[in-house]
Design brief:
Elements (H helix, E strand, L loop, with lengths): L1 H12 L3 H72 L4 H18 L1 E2 L8 E2 L5 E2 L5 E2 L2 E3 H5 L10 E6 L2 E2 L2 E9 L5 E12 L5 E11 L5 E4 L5 H4 L2 E5 L2 E3 L3 E2 L2 E2 L9 E4 L2 E3 L3 E4 L4 E4 L14 E4 L4 E4 L4 E4 L1 E4 L3 E5 L4 E4 L2 E4 L3 E4 L3 E4 L11 E4 L5 E4 L5 E4 L4 E2 L10 E2 L4 E3 L20 E4 L3 H14 L22 E8 L2 E11 L4 H14 L1 H11 E4 L8 E2 L3 E5 L2 E5 L6 H17 L11 H5 L2 H8 L7 E7 L6 E4 L2 E4 L19 E9 L6 E3 L5 E10 L2 E3 L2 E8 L2 E3 L5 E2 L4 H6 L10 E4 L7 H4 E8 L1
Parallel strand pairs: 12-16, 12-49, 13-17, 13-50, 16-19, 17-20, 18-21, 19-22, 20-23, 21-24, 22-25, 23-26, 24-27, 25-28, 26-29, 27-30, 28-31, 29-34, 30-38, 31-39, 45-47, 46-48, 47-49, 48-50, 49-51
Antiparallel strand pairs: 1-2, 3-4, 5-8, 6-9, 7-8, 8-9, 9-10, 10-53, 11-52, 14-15, 32-33, 35-37, 36-37, 40-41, 42-44, 42-45, 43-44
């Protein structure tokens, strides 16, 4: 009992302790709650800060995306410009790629950005470098121009655009780097900073690359296709003369031809002939159906004229004959394709800056491309700035005109005429007789047989050092070529020249290389007497079928020939002959000509019946009260009235009775259709003539004739609508052609304009 009482007493003494315990627990819980609230609030503040930062970053990133979108627009414009230039060209795929790149960078070099209200236009790529060839290299981008792509920031916020490193010593310029292969341009270190009103700041730095998409030309190369004639200003089956002989001399300088041209030959005298940038001139070998002969396809200087190929242009020809101080020059990215020779027959200058392809690779003189200096009145050949030189043939010692196959193949592709003595068989092989020998014409055959026998009897005699005729493949009479010429002043005698006739080009090359090294001083005198060669220090980079020459200080060295040109040469010859028939590289017509490929013979004869020698208007619409009209579908040719040349005026084709699309005519034999307009020039959509045409002054439009076109030194200007007007007439014999790009409709701009080196600060 005592223990129970004591326990009860102790409990009574602890009264109030529970309240204290509750208070302590409450305080602890309160502090825990405060700590928890503090942690939650801190987390909330962190999340708010993170959200604000992300919003700021999104604003900076969105701004950079807008800049990229603007560059996509600039890229699209540049692509469109390049595409348009390709469609206007008449060139192969490789040249079209060069045209596309050039136009692409030209457009970027002049592209301007502006605000959404079209204010503040600024060049995107200021101060591009203008290269010697006229092309542009981009070096800088303008920060101010890029700022035009940015929207107005939210109130109190701001964008700041900068370059990681300024360029060109200008604070507003960033560095733009154009790739060495010109396949892209990269805007380096674009830095965009977005600052909010509440102080949050985020920056994005990146490079943006604008790549040139891959371009492949897709041709609908149909014979007679409209596209094949696009940009042509003249087609003259038999040829073009750019001069007129007058009583006091020829016409003065000044005639310039714009647009693409086809001609059976070109004769220059005292005038200018320009192949415009990215255009084409074909000097082809047109068939004359009456004789079965073909035109020469030659460009011939009969006087001191000038012929210039523009940037990216293409020229096809059979021969280029320089004389009378003629001047022939080509510019960068041009292609000069020659089936036979570049010949210097007199003083004259040739300056090659583009690509020269002599593609004739045959075994006869007229089918083998070379460069020949025929006159001691020095011709000048300057290849200092040439991009490439290819000669698929070699020089020949020409035989009699009556037997062109009787010629001697030489072992060089660039030759001065006196070098032919290297191929004369030495006199000690002829038993001491001179080479050439002079004999009575009646004894010439017998004497020739005797001399050939002597030569073969000495075939083991050393020819050059320890090499004999047999070492160069000459073992029988086929290795000896005898060229016979009448003796001037004595019709009873002839001169006989005995030449080495090698079995193949390889042996000829080997022989000339050995001869050159043994007679270097003699050959150098021949070259220096006949030619002024500039830029031949790079001669080792030329590709020639036979030996070429390279200048080493004041002396010359020979470079070996190549055997790899035959296939390419034969393909280009096929294309050249196709162009001479149909204006299509891929389509042939052995009996065709460019003029009759596109013009309906029966319709032209019908339209001009009874009106030879006069211009006949070709119209679409007529006054219903007009007398004597003949309908042909919805096209009309007036029959009751004919027109003289004075009716084609500077104001365009019209006759007062309706809208005239163009004119046609049939020339009388040996009498050209003469055209001269009022007001100093002729403006005509098209002029189609069976026969010759002679111009009196400037002509705007397209001229097509089956004969010769004599420009008289006047200019021809391209009329872009001319071919469309002609196509809508019943004279048109062509089909609808076309061309396009195999890549372009599906270009993914996300893959063309791209980010790299992306960083967030």
């Amino acid at each position: 009992m005592k223990h129970l009482k004591e326990g009860k007493k102790a409990l009574q003494q602890n009264r109030g302790n529970g309240l204290i315990l509750v208070l302590v627990i409450a305080i602890v819980v309160t502090f825990l709650g405060i700590a928890l609230l503090s942690t939650s609030y801190t987390s909330y503040l962190v999340k708010v800060a993170e959200r604000e930062s992300n919003d700021t970053f999104a604003s900076a990133e969105d701004g950079m995306d807008l800049i990229r979108a603007g560059l996509v627009h600039a890229e699209s414009n540049a692509i469109a410009s390049g595409y348009a230039k390709v469609l206007q060209s008449f060139a192969d795929n490789t040249t079209n790629k060069l045209i596309f790149k050039t136009a692409f960078y030209d457009e970027l070099g002049q592209y301007q950005t502006s605000k959404r209200d079209s204010s503040n236009p600024l060049p995107l790529f200021p101060n591009p470098r203008i290269n010697a060839d006229g092309t542009k290299t981009i070096r800088y981008y303008s920060l101010s121009a890029l700022e035009n792509y940015l929207p107005q920031a939210h109130e109190g916020d701001s964008y700041q655009l900068a370059a990681a490193m300024t360029a060109g010593g200008v604070e507003d310029y960033g560095s733009a780097v154009q790739a060495e292969d010109n396949r892209s341009v990269t805007l380096r270190g674009i830095r965009l900073t977005y600052t909010r009103a509440d102080g949050y700041v985020t920056s994005v730095t990146t490079d943006i690359t604008m790549a040139i998409p891959e371009v492949e030309l897709r041709k609908a190369d149909i014979v007679g296709g409209e596209k094949a004639l696009q940009n042509f200003t003249a087609i003259a089956d038999k040829g073009i003369k750019n001069y007129r002989d007058l009583e006091g001399g020829t016409t003065p300088d000044g005639g310039v031809i714009e647009g693409s041209v086809y001609a059976g030959k070109v004769e220059m005298k005292g005038g200018a002939f320009n192949v415009a940038d990215n255009q084409c001139m074909i000097v082809g070998r047109t068939l004359d159906p009456a004789t079965g002969q073909r035109t020469s396809g030659d460009i011939t200087f009969l006087g001191a004229g000038t012929f210039t190929q523009g940037v990216g242009s293409t020229l096809w020809a059979n021969n280029i004959q320089i004389s009378s101080n003629g001047d022939f020059s080509t510019r960068v990215n041009s292609r000069t394709l020659v089936a036979d020779d570049l010949m210097f027959d007199d003083e004259g200058t040739v300056h090659l800056r583009g690509n020269y392809y002599g593609f004739g690779c045959g075994n006869e003189a007229k089918q083998s491309s070379s460069i020949i200096f025929n006159s001691p009145r020095k011709g000048t050949l300057d290849v200092t700035d040439i991009q490439s030189l290819l000669l698929a043939g070699r020089s020949f010692v020409q035989g009699e005109e009556s037997n062109p196959a009787a010629s001697v193949g030489m072992g060089s592709s660039i030759t001065a005429k006196p070098e032919q003595v290297a191929y004369l068989i030495p006199s000690d092989y002829l038993g001491g007789d001179l080479n050439p020998t002079i004999v009575a014409e009646e004894d010439s055959v017998e004497r020739m047989d005797e001399m050939v026998a002597r030569i073969l009897a000495n075939k083991d005699h050393p020819l050059i050092k320890d090499k004999t005729l047999a070492d160069y493949g000459i073992t029988d009479a086929s290795g000896i070529r005898v060229l016979t010429y009448p003796l001037p002043g004595d019709s009873t005698k002839v001169s006989q020249y005995y030449f080495l006739n090698f079995p193949d080009k390889t042996k000829a090359n080997e022989y000339f290389r050995d001869y050159f090294n043994s007679h270097k001083g003699q050959i150098q005198k021949y070259i220096d007497a006949y030619a002024s060669l500039q830029g031949f220090e790079q001669g080792s980079s030329f590709i020639t079928a036979s030996t070429s020459i390279r200048k080493d200080g004041d002396s010359y060295e020979v470079t070996p020939g190549s055997n790899s040109l035959k296939d390419e040469g034969e393909d280009l010859m096929r294309r050249y002959m196709n162009l001479s028939q149909t204006l299509s590289e891929e389509n042939s017509d052995e009996n065709g000509t460019p003029f009759w490929t596109y013009i309906k013979r029966d319709k032209l004869m019908e339209f001009c019946e009874g009106r030879e020698g006069q211009l006949v208007p070709v119209a679409w619409h007529v006054d219903p009260n007009a007398a004597e009209r003949s309908y042909n579908g919805n096209k009309v040719v007036y029959r009751g009235e004919v027109y003289g040349s004075e009716t084609i005026g500077a104001d365009g084709p019209t006759d007062g009775k309706g809208e005239v699309a163009g004119y046609c005519a049939k020339a009388r034999p040996n009498e050209p259709i003469r055209v001269s307009g009022a007001g100093g020039g002729v403006k005509c959509n098209f002029l189609v003539v069976d026969g010759d045409v002679e111009l009196g002054n400037q002509f705007d439009g397209i001229i097509m004739c089956s004969g010769m076109l004599n420009t008289g030194g006047a200019s021809l200007h391209l009329q872009m609508d001319g071919i469309s007007y002609l196509r809508n007439s019943d004279l048109w014999n062509g089909t609808r052609g076309g061309s396009g790009l195999s890549k372009g409709d599906d270009w993914a701009m996300d893959e063309v304009v791209t980010y790299s080196n992306w960083k967030k600060d």
